[in-house]
Design a protein that fits this description.
Elements: H1 18-32, H2 37-44, H3 48-55, H4 63-73, H5 77-81
Helix pairs in contact: 2-4
Length: about 90
């Protein structure tokens, strides 16, 4: 059996980029509230695929999506832009 080839994409977002910082903050905030991605999707109205891409830092932020996710997490959009401690 051949070993699996790496996908070429890092598992974690790059915290030195804006999308990476937002992704890290989203994931950390969601997990600290004990929410699954499915629960956050239901609360925010954002699709699961969009949320997953945001958490991986793969997409540039859009104001409407950030506002919906922040509101569902009980945060402001500005809070999503701050770096996660330890990154």
């Amino acid at each position: 059996m051949k070993p699996k080839k790496p996908s070429g994409r890092p598992r974690l977002p790059r915290p030195d980029t804006l999308p990476g910082r937002i992704g890290a903050r989203l994931e950390a905030s969601r997990e600290s509230r004990g929410l699954t991605q499915t629960q956050l999707v239901a609360a925010s109205g954002v699709s699961l695929g969009t949320l997953a891409r945001y958490e991986r830092g793969e997409v540039d932020p859009q104001a409407g999506v950030l506002a919906a996710l922040a509101a569902a997490l009980g945060m402001t959009g500005r809070e999503l832009l701050r770096p996660v401690k330890g990154w």
